[in-house]
Design goal:
The complex is a heterodimer. By secondary structure, chain A is mainly β. Helix content of chain A is 8%, strand content 38%. The longest helix of chain A has 18 residues. The two termini of chain B are 59 Å apart. In chain B, the strands form 9 sheets. Chain B has an 8-stranded antiparallel sheet with strand order 26-27-28-29-36-33-32-31, with no helix packed on it. In chain B, strands 3, 4, 5, 7, 8, 10 and 13 form a 7-stranded antiparallel sheet that branches. Classes of the chains: A mainly beta, B alpha+beta. Strand 9 of chain A pairs antiparallel with strand 26 of chain B, so a sheet runs across the interface.
């Protein structure tokens, strides 16, 4: 008779052990000058004028040089001097009000497209008085039924000219009206293309450098932990709640993917259900965050530092921005996440990287708590030009992992087996809420090869676990200049092992 | 429908069998074997024997639960007193002699799995059982009572949520269970709509149908009366003092509902006369002036006597049989109005149109029959009626069973008085003694208790092959119907206790806690170590009110470290009194009683207590520390209040444990440890680590020291409900006050679809336009709207306008083609009628013009205030454009029961409508009137309809 708690209890020593590692790393760091995130990616906070409640749900630069910020209260502000070296120079002007929880903004051809709870509206200012006066319904093909949870996140237009909208379920479990739990595409004429089912509770949507579309989903039913997911057209993202709306598609009800088995594992189901696209990156609950949100991609070609083409993902609860390296294996994206920047003033929601390599970060903690204590915030991150010592990339290999670094590693330390520790685990894929970490294993690092230039390390591993998060710690690693890693941890979601 | 739990039989079947329940019930009904496959049901035995219990430990558990000690003396190493058999004093008032007789003769047949032994000689001689039953029930009477449907329905929900089903299993049918599991998103054994197919969507093969470790209920219908079951449920320890059946702290009405559910199949003879009337009243009419549409006899004061659900009345009459002189309190709940009269005097007056809810009144009555009349009417909406009585020596209960059709006291069928002969009673007394009943059962009041005079060998001298352990015990030896494995286990335990190392194999606190938790079946709800916790089969009877909290919100916590977490006094309180500290969890911690507390609390503390956290020295004065802590928990810092309630203040997100009870429940040391790393103590909890890596996220408060901050919170919470309310809990209104430009508020507005758009004006005349219905739905005056409902916290629910004079306008579709004026206005949604919302434009003043498309027709809708008296009015301009000719097209302006026209001005429901240049028509259709404006295009393909609204 299996108790539903038995797995939870088995996981306790691991948590304790990690805490110990965390504490010991802090103690060690005191010996030398501890590197700090601020040295490399300083965070600049904008003073928001009294009377403005800037619960930033979406951020978009406009061609007139202002920055549009849409809020959960349904306002859109235009911020002038948002890029100015002096953040105090920024001024805020109300452009539009009276919309319903805006969680997507995109500018195109004279129109600002705003995804609000009930529809995508495009706005413009026809009489140039600085205020929008034309609010045209671009698409309202999905339903809402008055549940606060029915959020809608909108993307910019993709490489094919389509806008993407991800629609939260009604609450956690059900899809009470059409297209809840789906990603829809909207073409340039405003027509709807139902695209992916299986969504639970999105927190953001964005593109990678190739223009493929990703969204974040949150811990809950069929989501053991928060994750980054790839919206491959036609894919099923794991939560069967919205599959009833296949009845409205051309393929009809029968075109719905098979129901996943509750209590199973992600890759077991991915092997069984061809439409199911396993999460690209699982963000281990509590270790990385508790509520994944906005997505931004660094396409600045080096202006933002050493993480070109990588994805950045927010977390509301931990008030952080996380970093994701992804690669394509067997036609599926997967990869590793790393801590990147903590200390966002409120709960991180919207992320927007502008062409000059400024990452704007909007925050709100209304309804959901965050470590950042302010009720809302607007901040920006820029690279200071100093090179952080970080794991730049973590790639899966048939027999282990290959790590690249932003600075050469001390080869002697890197070759020591005790420099590295790795553990693996996964999550139960189940219809009830969340999951503990389960199926723990301890792979053995059998060989460590350090490249001649010290820029990469090859870890050969006995016991790679398909479908598991591979948690790697390298607390003792030093650069050739004796600096420890800014973030000595990486979590690789190994859905597929390359051949 | 049979009401026999299928628990014992089900276990023989493959859990994947597609339709086991119906088949098994049938099988039970045909002929129940005396001995169930696994013998006596002791939940922890059946559940854990295979995986967690050694034969010796299993045997020890059986010894305690069969109370072998009552005959065989003390058994070494027992931590808890053994399970005492029910106290039989006054059993005749709660159980019928007939049931007792059958049960004594063959207990296993009536209640498979029971710990009550049968005796071969009694089974073969019906007179002995009859005599014992007569002896036990002498001088008492038994009164079956009908139950009301509403109570049964509520009782079913309670039984399957407060905790009864955690031990007794789910009593509902498979379809109902599947519905619940689907709602909780738990695996269900899906049955395809067409035919039975192998289950899918289930990774494990566990079945949620009543598992074999559920404690059987037996045939409660035959055993209890409503009144006696209510009494039992409220205080089970009064007759079962060992606490195995814990008390759930049920309120009287909850006990009544659960008892009603368990006795739902009891049938009694009609005993109340009723007359049924039809009519639409707002108070109880004078029924004597009306002619009933129906009359008959019934068993309950229930609305089910009426075939209607709206606009009817009922008058019930009968004779209330009062057992003894005294003051009686009568309770009347009704939707809508009702009155209760006794001997022609109104005792409870609950008249008028209102929702259900009790009112009561007292009458002093003499023993004997009294004329009783209950008058009731239902206007519209919900309907309900309940009548209850409470008196000296009479718990509050439905009154129906005390009512008779005629004045004569009680008919034989209604009340079964135990009137056996003295001879039979004496024979029963002798048998009770000689058969050893008194060894286990108390009978008689203190001082007159029958003592057991027999003798049985002590444990040390027991032969493990004979006596009760024999496969076929001798004629006068109790037969416990134990299964073969249970026999082996009992033998193993008895022999192990004799072994030389019996005492050396010292029990640890840990193993003794395990023993207690097995015995009291704590594991049904709580895990500890690697044992127990909610089983997959029962998990769906654990429900919470906040689905988003997941299992944490519905499944009772694991008890690992509980002796470190909770302070001693609170641990004792929980076990002694029960608890309900988690507002989101429907399951209650029941009360197990002193013996359990005495045994468990010291052992848990001994086993769990960790090193204490060193005292924290505060540099600030106490009042400053508390103020800082108050800041930390509020919305300016850690926002603990987002999830934790604070006394009567709801949290702003989910509703987790009350902060003001923390220091009453918890130990300070544990609080410090937990706050630093919640995951370690409660893996998977949503409680975030507020001091990640030991660092504070609010470094400006109290020097940023984690330990100091946590201590400060503890000190602050030590004030309990006197602690000052943290910032952010009292929701302040966010009134939107239109000034130079109108304010648009797009959100969930009461009375509109979720696509509501409210527009507020400085002139204090406002409207709300519905982008699904394509029409204005509400107009009002005064204050515009309070946005705090949606702009504070997550923002659930619909907001109502803040102002006054809120008027509703008809729903869409706003425009339709009517071939003739006899054609009903289309009732499909506007979308289905070809309407599409196109957005709005703002004029330079910021006033919106709403736009929508009706197939090829474009429509704009513009409303703005104008000066009127005494309040501003709204002027509405609708412009319809079409390139095609349009015929028989109308705009609907109003729909009401009556529309008046005075001097070309239309008046309906307090709204006055005045039109420019168009001629509306009033039509009467389907019992109401509609005001329609014909849409006539002018030469440029445009129709302009303009009118003013004053209200």
């Amino acid at each position: 008779m299996r108790s539903i708690f038995s797995d939870v209890i088995r996981s306790r020593p691991v948590t304790a052990c990690l805490l110990f590692m965390l504490l010991s790393s802090l103690v060690e760091a005191q010996d030398t000058i501890p590197p700090a995130e601020d040295d490399f990616y300083p965070l600049t906070r904008f003073q928001i004028p009294q009377g403005i409640v800037l619960e930033a749900g979406a951020i978009e630069p406009l061609p007139d040089g202002t920055l549009a910020i849409a809020t959960r209260r349904g306002d859109i502000y235009r911020v002038s001097n948002a890029w100015s070296d002096d953040p105090a120079a920024a001024t805020f002007e109300l452009f539009a009000q009276g919309m319903h929880e805006i969680l997507g903004l995109s500018y195109k051809d004279g129109w600002l497209y705003a995804t609000q709870r009930c529809e995508v509206t495009r706005l413009r200012d026809t009489d140039n008085d600085g205020k929008a006066d034309d609010f045209e319904t671009f698409n309202d093909s999905w339903s809402i039924n008055g549940d606060y949870h029915e959020y809608a996140f909108g993307s910019p237009f993709d490489k094919d000219g389509n806008m993407w909208v991800v629609l939260c379920l009604t609450g956690s479990f059900n899809s009470d009206c059409p297209w809840r739990g789906w990603a829809l595409r909207i073409d340039e004429s405003g027509k709807t293309i139902p695209t992916s089912s299986g969504i639970r509770s999105p927190g953001g949507i964005g593109f990678n450098a190739e223009g493929d579309v990703f969204y974040t989903d949150n811990q809950g039913p069929w989501n053991g932990t928060c994750s980054l997911k790839w919206l491959r057209p036609g894919s099923f993202q794991g939560h069967p709640g919205g599959n009833r709306w296949f009845s409205l598609t051309a393929g009809g009800r029968d075109s719905a993917p098979q129901e996943p088995l509750s209590g199973s594992r992600i890759m077991t189901e991915a092997d069984r259900i061809p439409e199911y696209e396993p999460p690209v990156i699982l963000f281990p609950y509590q270790k990385m965050g508790q509520s994944a949100s906005g997505i931004a991609c660094d396409v600045s070609k080096g202006k933002f530092g050493p993480f070109e083409n990588q994805l950045f993902v927010g977390d509301v609860t931990h008030s952080t921005v996380m970093r994701c390296f992804i690669e394509k294996i067997n036609g599926h994206y997967q990869g590793a996440c790393f801590p990147f920047r903590e200390g966002i003033s409120s709960g991180t929601l919207a992320l927007r990287m502008t062409d000059d390599a400024t990452m704007f970060v909007g925050g709100t903690n209304r309804g959901w708590g965050s470590r950042g204590t302010r009720p809302f915030s607007l901040e920006r991150l820029r690279w200071s030009g100093k090179m952080p010592f970080e794991i730049q990339e973590m790639r899966a290999r048939p027999d282990g992992f290959e790590l690249t670094f932003t600075e050469p590693v001390d080869p002697e330390i890197a070759r020591k087996p005790e420099t590295w520790t790795m553990a693996t685990y996964c999550y139960i894929f189940q219809s009830s809420y969340g999951s503990p970490e389960v199926d723990h294993t301890k792979p053995v690092i059998t060989q460590i090869d350090v490249a001649a230039d010290g820029r990469s390390v090859r870890l050969k591993i006995d016991g790679m676990q398909r479908g598991h998060v591979h948690e790697l710690h390298a607390d003792g690693l030093r650069s050739t200049t004796g600096i420890p890693l800014l973030h000595p941890v990486a979590y690789y979601t190994l859905n597929y092992i390359p051949l | 429908m049979l009401n026999i739990p299928a628990s014992n039989s089900l276990r023989q079947f493959s859990m994947n069998h597609s339709a086991p329940i119906r088949f098994l019930l049938f099988w039970v009904a045909l002929g129940t074997p005396s001995i169930a496959a696994d013998g006596i049901v002791v939940p922890a035995y059946q559940r854990f024997r295979a995986d967690h219990l050694s034969s010796v430990d299993a045997g020890r558990l059986l010894i305690s639960e069969l109370n072998c000690q009552s005959c065989h003396g003390t058994f070494a190493g027992e931590v808890l007193p053994p399970r005492q058999a029910p106290i039989l004093t006054k059993i005749g008032e709660r159980t019928s002699a007939e049931y007792l007789q059958k049960f004594i003769r063959d207990p296993q047949a009536l209640k498979p799995g029971t710990a009550m032994p049968g005796i071969a000689s009694v089974k073969s001689d019906s007179l002995t059982a009859e005599a014992i039953a007569a002896f036990l029930t002498q001088g008492t009477s038994w009164r079956p009572a009908g139950v009301s449907i509403g109570a049964v329905r509520r009782g079913e929900a309670l039984f399957h949520s407060v905790g009864c089903a955690a031990c007794h299993g789910d009593q509902r049918d498979v379809a109902a269970i599947e519905a619940v599991r689907k709602g909780l998103a738990l695996p269900v054994e899906q049955q395809d709509e067409e035919e039975d197919t192998p289950p899918k969507n289930v990774a494990s093969d566990a079945s949620y149908a009543t598992p074999d470790f559920a404690m059987p209920l037996g045939r409660l219908d035959d055993k209890y009366t409503l009144s006696s079951l209510i009494t039992f449920l409220q205080d089970p320890h009064a007759v079962r003092p060992s606490g195995r059946m814990p008390a759930l702290n049920l309120k009287p009405e909850e006990a009544r509902d659960i008892a009603s559910y368990l006795l739902k199949n009891v049938r009694v003879k009609a005993n109340i006369h009723f007359d049924h009337y039809e009519g639409d009243w707002e108070s109880v009419p004078d029924f004597s002036q009306l002619t009933p549409t129906d009359s008959g006899e019934t068993t309950d004061f229930s609305v089910s006597a009426s075939p209607k659900t709206e606009a009817f009345g009922l008058r019930f009459a009968g004779f209330l049989q009062i057992p003894a002189d005294g003051d009686f309190r009568f309770f009347l709940s009704s939707d809508d109005g009702s009155k209760l009269l006794i001997d022609g005097t109104v005792v409870v007056d609950h008249d008028g149109v209102h929702p259900a809810g009790f009112r009561d009144g007292v009458a002093t009555l003499k023993a004997g029959p009294h004329e009783v009349v209950v008058e009731y009417f239902e206007a519209h909406g919900e309907e309900e009626l309940a009548v209850e009585i409470q008196g000296p020596n009479m718990p509050r209960q439905p009154m129906a069973s005390f009512v008779t059709l005629t004045q004569e006291a009680v008919t034989a069928a209604q009340e079964v008085a135990a009137d056996a002969s003295l001879e039979l009673i004496e024979k029963g007394r002798q048998a009770f003694d000689s058969l050893g009943c008194a060894a286990c059962h108390q009978f008689g009041d203190a001082g007159q208790r029958i003592a057991w005079t027999g003798k049985a060998p002590q444990f040390a001298d027991l032969k493990t092959s004979g006596g009760c352990l024999a496969e076929q015990p001798a004629a006068n030896v109790p037969n416990f119907a134990i299964g073969p494995r249970q026999r082996d286990d009992l033998t193993a335990a008895i022999l192990a206790a004799r072994g030389p190392n019996a005492l050396l194999k010292a029990a640890t606190a840990r193993s003794e806690i395990n023993q207690i938790m097995l015995t009291m079946n704590c594991y049904a709800c709580h895990a500890r170590g690697s044992i127990g916790g909610v089983s997959e089969a029962m998990t769906h009877v654990f429900v919470g009110s906040i689905p988003e909290m997941g299992d944490e919100g519905r499944v009772p916590p694991a008890l690992d470290g509980a002796g470190d977490k909770l302070n001693e006094a609170w641990l004792r309180t929980i076990l002694n009194e029960g608890a309900k500290d988690r507002p989101y969890m429907k399951t209650r911690m029941p009360k197990f009683g002193n013996a359990a507390a005495d045994a468990l609390v010291p052992r848990m503390i001994a086993s769990d207590l960790q090193e204490s956290v060193a005292p924290v020295v505060m540099t600030e004065a106490d009042h400053r520390v508390k103020a800082d802590a108050r800041l930390i928990v509020g919305d300016q810092a850690l926002s603990c209040i987002k999830c934790h309630t604070f006394e009567k203040y709801a949290a702003t997100g989910i509703q987790s444990l009350d902060m003001t009870t923390m220091t009453r429940r918890l130990r300070r040391d544990w609080f410090h440890r937990y706050m630093m790393d919640p995951q370690q103590y409660r893996p998977g909890t949503r409680m975030p680590a507020a001091w990640p890596g030991g660092r504070s996220v609010v470094p400006d408060i109290l020097g940023g020291d984690a330990g100091v901050q946590i201590e400060a919170i503890w000190q602050y919470l030590l004030d309990g409900n006197r602690a000052k309310i943290p910032s952010g809990l009292m929701r302040e209104a966010i009134e939107l006050i239109p000034a130079d430009r109108p304010i648009i508020y797009r959100n969930f507005i009461e009375g509109l679809s979720p696509r509501g758009i409210a527009v507020g004006f400085q002139e204090k005349a406002h409207f709300a336009w519905d982008a699904e219905q394509m029409t204005p739905r509400l107009i009002w005056h005064g204050a515009f709207i309070d946005a705090s409902k949606h702009w504070v916290d997550r923002g659930p629910g619909n907001q109502t306008p803040l102002g006054d004079h809120v008027m509703t306008l008809p729903a869409g579709p706003p425009i339709a083609t009517l071939v003739s004026l006899d054609q009903t206005w289309p009732d499909k949604s506007p979308r289905e009628n070809g309407f599409h919302f196109k957005g709005y434009t703002l004029n330079p003043g910021g006033v919106p013009t709403f736009k929508f498309q009706w197939n090829d027709v474009s429509v704009t809708d513009f409303l703005q205030p104008y000066e009127a008296s005494p309040d501003s009015g709204l002027q509405r301009t609708v412009i319809v454009k079409s390139s095609e000719r349009m015929e028989n097209v109308y705009l609907r302006i109003a729909a009401a029961s009556k529309i008046n026209v005075v001097d070309g001005v239309f008046v309906t429901n307090g709204i006055t409508l005045k039109f420019d240049d168009c001629e509306p028509v009033i039509r009467t259709i389907d019992g109401h009137q509609e005001l329609l404006v014909p849409v006539q295009l002018n030469i440029d393909g445009k129709a302009i309809i303009r009118y003013s609204i004053v209200w």
